[in-house]
């Protein structure tokens, strides 16, 4: 029973929560003005994270790893296109985002589709793909650090997406448990770090909850102005 719970139920729940994690920013993207608030680096690292895990899932033949990352990759591409169109078009940091995206995809494809399967045995290829997943997943979890730094500086956590943070925490916990159950450090290691990252985000959300409520009406006025300008143009 325990084996079935840890080996089947937990990863199935993890897959479902992962899909929810990828869907959680959708509501924000349905409102034009809130697209400006979404961290471009989060969208870009989501692409790299999903792509690397799809390759790893193929290497280790784990359907639970592959399944959530296919829709995750599709959604992250859509988020990135929208962020680029609405929030990064005139951003002076765009060249850095472009470099991260292009180099990240190139590195994943080079390692996981060329070097690992062609030059290494199966075990070594899985190990190399696993390290690639760790790098990309840590980037995905660490990408909100710039946002967290601004939260502390401004004493406001409005920019932290609550649904994304909750989903990240639950998702990280489930995959950590599953990784321990199948004794795969590439699964439980970075996901445990993800739990810590999500916990910090939620802690800041709680600490600055009062100031966020005070700022919300002002932000709504600002967003309404942006939407009106968009319609007028």
UniProtKB/TrEMBL annotation:
InterPro entries xref list: SWEET (IPR047664), SWEET_rpt (IPR004316)
Subcellular location as annotated: Cell membrane; Golgi apparatus membrane
GO MF, one annotated term: sugar transmembrane transporter activity
Pfam families: MtN3_slv (PF03083)
Primary residence: membrane
Membrane spanning residue stretches: 6-26, 38-59, 65-84, 96-116, 128-148, 160-181, 187-208
Gene3D superfamilies: 1.20.1280.290
Superkingdom as given in the UniProt entry: Eukaryota
Coiled-coil parts of chain: none
Gene Ontology CC: one annotated term: plasma membrane
UniProt family annotation: Belongs to the SWEET sugar transporter family.
Record protein name field: Sugar transporter SWEET1
Native species: Rozella allomycis (strain CSF55)
């Amino acid at each position: 029973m325990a084996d079935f719970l840890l080996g089947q139920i937990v990863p199935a729940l993890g897959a479902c929560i992962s899909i929810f994690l990828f869907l959680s920013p959708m509501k924000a993207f349905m409102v034009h003005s809130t697209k400006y608030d979404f961290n471009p680096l989060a969208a870009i690292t989501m692409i790299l994270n999903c792509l690397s895990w799809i390759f790893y899932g193929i290497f280790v033949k784990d359907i639970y790893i592959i399944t959530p990352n296919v829709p995750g990759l599709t959604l992250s591409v859509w988020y990135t296109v929208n962020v680029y169109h609405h929030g990064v078009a005139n951003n002076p940091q765009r060249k850095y985002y472009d470099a991260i995206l292009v180099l990240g995809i190139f590195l994943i494809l080079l390692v996981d589709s060329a070097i690992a399967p062609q030059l290494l045995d199966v075990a070594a290829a899985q190990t190399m793909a696993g390290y690639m997943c760790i790098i990309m997943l840590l980037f995905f979890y660490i990408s909100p650090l710039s946002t967290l730094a601004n939260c502390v500086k401004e004493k406001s956590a409005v920019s932290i997406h609550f649904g994304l943070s909750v989903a990240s925490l639950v998702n990280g916990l489930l995959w950590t448990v599953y990784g321990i159950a199948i004794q795969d450090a590439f699964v439980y290691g970075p996901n445990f770090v993800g739990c810590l990252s999500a916990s910090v985000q939620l802690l800041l959300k709680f600490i600055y909850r009062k100031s966020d409520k005070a700022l919300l009406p002002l932000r709504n006025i600002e967003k309404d102005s942006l939407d009106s300008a968009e319609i007028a143009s």
